C-alpha cells in the first residue's frame, strides 16, 4: 500500500512538473511572439493599394520618427524629432479617388545665416488626386490640388517624404535678430584673431 502511494505521489509530482513546464514554455513563447509582433507593427514601413484605400475610405493615424525618413537626412541638421501624420482616402464630389495628407511635427534644419540648429515646425495639409498615367499630365493644370500616380503598392513614408521635401524652405534662417548672438561672437573672434576669417574659409 505504501509502495503504491509512493508511486502515485511520484507520478503526480512528475505530472505537475510537466504541466508547469508546458505553461512556462507557452508563456515564454507567447511573450516573445508578442514582442516580435509589436516590433514589426511599430517599425514596418506601411504600403497601401491607393485606389482601394480611397474607395473604401481608408484611414491611417500614427507617427514616425524623423530618423525613419532617410531621404530627409541630407537637408536636416540632425535626425531628432517625431512627425505625426494622418492619411485619409475618399472620393471627391466628382467621384474621383483622393488622398488627404496631414503632417504635424518638428524637425531641425541648419540656419544658413548662423549655421546653428533651427527648429522648424511642419504643418502641412494636402489633397492628392489619384491618377493613371494618361490623366496624370492633365492633372498638372488642376489648381485645386495635385495629382499623383495611383499605385497598388504605394509607399506611405515615401509619400510623406515627397510632401515634406517639396515644402521645406530652400534657405532656412532664424527670424531676424535671432542670430545676433552668434554674429556678435564671430565679430569679437575676428577682432581678437585677425586670421579667423582665413581659418573659416579653409574649413569651407
Question: Your description of this structure?
Answer:
By secondary structure, the chain is of the alpha+beta class. It has two domains: 1-44; 47-186, no CATH class. The protein contains six helices and seven strands; from the N terminus they run H-E-H-E-E-E-E-H-E-E-H-H-H. The chain has helices at residues 2-43, 50-55, 133-139, 156-167, 180-192, 196-203, and strands at 47-48, 59-65, 82-91, 97-110, 117-131, 146-149, 154-155. It has a five-stranded mixed β-sheet with strand order 2-3-4-5-6. A two-stranded antiparallel ribbon has the order 1-7. Strand 3 and strand 4 form a beta hairpin. The longest helix has 42 residues, at 2-43. It starts with a helix and ends with a helix.
Topology at a glance:
Elements: H1 2-43, E1 47-48, H2 50-55, E2 59-65, E3 82-91, E4 97-110, E5 117-131, H3 133-139, E6 146-149, E7 154-155, H4 156-167, H5 180-192, H6 196-203
Parallel strand pairs: 5-6
Antiparallel strand pairs: 1-7, 2-3, 3-4, 4-5
Kindly summarize this structure in a few lines:
The chain has 204 residues and is of the alpha+beta class. The protein has six helices and seven strands, in the order αβαββββαββααα.
Amino acid at each position: 500500500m505504501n509502495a503504491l502511494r509512493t508511486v502515485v505521489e511520484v507520478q503526480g509530482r512528475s505530472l505537475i512538473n510537466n504541466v508547469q513546464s508546458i505553461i512556462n514554455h507557452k508563456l515564454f513563447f507567447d511573450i516573445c511572439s508578442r514582442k516580435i509582433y509589436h516590433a514589426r507593427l511599430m517599425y514596418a514601413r506601411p504600403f497601401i493599394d491607393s485606389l482601394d484605400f480611397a474607395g473604401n475610405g481608408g484611414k491611417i493615424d500614427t507617427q514616425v520618427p524623423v530618423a525613419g525618413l532617410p531621404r530627409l537626412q541630407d537637408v536636416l541638421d540632425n535626425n531628432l524629432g517625431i512627425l505625426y501624420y494622418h492619411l485619409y482616402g475618399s472620393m471627391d464630389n466628382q467621384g474621383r479617388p483622393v488622398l488627404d495628407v496631414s503632417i504635424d511635427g518638428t524637425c531641425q534644419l541648419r540656419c544658413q545665416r548662423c549655421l546653428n540648429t533651427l527648429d522648424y515646425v511642419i504643418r502641412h495639409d494636402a489633397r492628392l488626386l489619384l491618377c493613371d498615367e494618361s490623366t496624370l499630365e492633365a492633372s498638372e493644370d488642376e489648381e485645386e490640388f495635385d495629382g499623383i500616380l495611383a499605385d497598388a503598392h504605394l509607399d506611405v513614408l515615401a509619400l510623406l517624404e515627397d510632401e515634406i521635401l517639396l515644402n521645406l524652405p530652400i534657405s532656412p534662417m532664424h527670424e531676424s535678430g535671432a542670430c545676433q548672438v552668434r554674429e556678435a561672437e564671430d565679430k569679437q573672434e575676428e577682432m581678437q584673431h585677425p586670421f579667423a576669417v582665413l581659418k573659416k574659409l579653409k574649413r569651407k
